[in-house]
Automatic annotation (TrEMBL):
Belongs to the short-chain dehydrogenases/reductases (SDR) family. Pfam families: adh_short (PF00106). This is SDR family NAD(P)-dependent oxidoreductase. The keyword Oxidoreductase applies. GO terms for molecular function: oxidoreductase activity. Gene3D superfamilies: NAD(P)-binding Rossmann-like Domain. It comes from Rhizobium acidisoli. Keywords: Oxidoreductase, Plasmid.
Length: 266
């Protein structure tokens, strides 16, 4: 059944229970968009309750977006709303620390399935709808981590390299379609990511990080303006620029200093 429309359009945000995703949803709500938000945890319902304070409609979907079934559940909810998606913010993602061979492979695979498979499956479904009507904006959350080999975070960094690259390619493919594709590439941000990824015993886990609200605002503004990519924060811009001219072997060594567990467990 179609929902009543209180906003100026519909925004879909994944990974929206906390962190950058929640802040992206808040930007859209403040801008007058109705929301469908999704995450793989019950806290998505609390996020929805808080976002309703901005006066737009908010529908929460608890689904595992690392699975095709979970993405299908979200798409079905979007379809049931009877509305077209104006803004798609594909932010769902997870990480995993420690050496690759010491990781549980099921957990490593979930990083790939969440960050890549679920993300592009959702974009394929919603992007086709946007292209059919010649209108829509897509934001992917990449990372400056995608510019460097991620020693002790190898799978995560590789997935973000994929997302960064994918976003540029898709933007080119859709340049005459009326659909824009933007990529937000933040650095280390104050969210629950590092705790969930088991990185709290590392230099990067303990370091000062960027504010999630500020990062999200930069990404949201880029989405609305139709910018192709945006690196949040001048330090991250510098790091990204240096990474582009530094040999991969050196980048891998530098990353190990940030992400190697202090305990020595590899």
């Amino acid at each position: 059944m179609a929902q009543s429309q209180s906003g100026k359009g519909l925004a879909v945000v994944t990974g929206a229970s906390t962190g950058i995703g929640y802040e992206l949803a808040k930007c859209a709500a403040q801008d007058g968009y109705d929301l469908i938000i999704a995450a793989d945890e019950e806290r998505i319902n609390l996020a929805a309750a808080n976002l309703k304070d901005f006066g737009t409609t908010v529908d929460a979907v608890e689904a595992d977006l690392s699975t095709l079934e979970g993405v299908d559940r979200l798409v079905e909810r979007i379809t049931a709303s009877g509305r077209s998606v104006d803004l798609l913010m594909a932010n769902a993602g997870c990480g995993l620390g420690k050496g690759f061979l010491d990781q549980n492979f099921g957990e490593a695979r979930k990083v790939v399935d969440t960050n890549i498979t679920g993300t592009i499956y959702l974009i394929h479904a919603i992007g086709n709808q946007m292209r059919s009507r010649g209108q829509g904006r897509i934001l992917l959350t990449g990372s400056i981590a995608g510019f460097m080999p991620g020693s002790y975070q190898a799978v995560y960094n590789a997935t973000k390299a994929f997302i960064n690259s994918f976003s540029f390619a898709l933007r080119e493919e859709l340049k005459e379609s009326g659909v824009t594709v933007s990529c937000l590439m933040p650095g280390a941000t104050e969210t629950e990511f590092f705790k969930r990824a088991g990185l709290m015993d590392t230099a990067i886990g303990q370091a000062k990080k960027d504010d999630a609200g500020e990062v999200a605002r930069i990404g949201y503004d880029a989405l609305i303006d139709g910018e192709g990519d945006v690196v949040s924060g001048w330090k991250n811009k510098l790091q990204a620029a240096v990474a582009n001219v530094t040999p991969a072997s050196i980048l891998a060594h530098q990353h190990s200093k940030m992400a190697e567990p202090d305990s020595g467990t590899k």
